[in-house]
Amino acid sequence: AVLYRVPLTWGQNKLPWKLLHAALMLISLILSILGLYAVFNFHNANKIANLYSLHSWIGIAAVALFAIQWVVGFAGFLLPCSPVLLRKLLKPVHVWLGGSILLLSVAAYISGINEKLFFVL
User: Fold this and answer.
1) Structure pTM?
2) H runs (alpha helix) in the chain
3) Exposed, middle or buried, 66 (CB in 10 Å: 0-12/13-18/19+)?
4) How many other C-beta atoms can be found within 10 angstroms of the C-beta atom of residue 74?
5) Rg (CA), the chain
6) In whole angstroms, what is the distance from residue 76 CA to residue 84 CA?
7) How far apart, in whole angstroms, are the C-alpha atoms of residue 102 and residue 44?
8) Rounded-to-integer distance, Cα 32 and Cα 51, Å
9) 19 and 78 in contact (C-beta within 8 Å)?
């Protein structure tokens, strides 16, 4: 999201910046999914229950919404067949949901630190 706040991007062709934004978000999504895979493997290997805390549910919700956001964003903003009216309607929702997903990921991060401190202390 910060990509669109850089003055270099203002007043230029938006397609390269949209493609860069989509690529960075796709990399983030793939890394998030790999992280979830690693956590589930670790829990299963050590016979720890999965999805037992608020931290895990917030994290799953954040990744699921992020995946939906990426697919809808790709279909709505990068496919040439998507109508301009759809893009105009989708943009505020896309921006709001992106901020909400960021806040969810911060909440998952903070609750994960609290959970770890609770178990250690």
Assistant:
1) 0.88
2) 15-45, 54-73, 84-120
3) buried
4) 15
5) 17
6) 9
7) 28
8) 16
9) yes
Q: Enumerate the H helices of 46-83 as residue ranges.
A: 54-73
Q: Each residue's pLDDT tens digit in the chain (121 positions)? A: 677 777 777 788 888 888 999 999 999 999 999 999 999 999 999 999 999 999 999 999 999 999 999 999 999 999 989 999 999 999 999 999 999 999 999 999 999 999 999 989 8
Task: From residue 109, give the alpha-carbon distance in Å to each of 1, 62, 87.
Answer: 19, 11, 32
CA distance 86 to 72: 11
Q: In b/e form, how buried is each residue of 24-47, taking b as 16+ CB within 10 angstroms?
A: ebeeebeebeeeeeeeeeeeeeee
List all residues 6 or more positions away from 75 whose beta carbon is below 8 Å from its beta carbon.
82
Report which DSSP code applies to 14: S
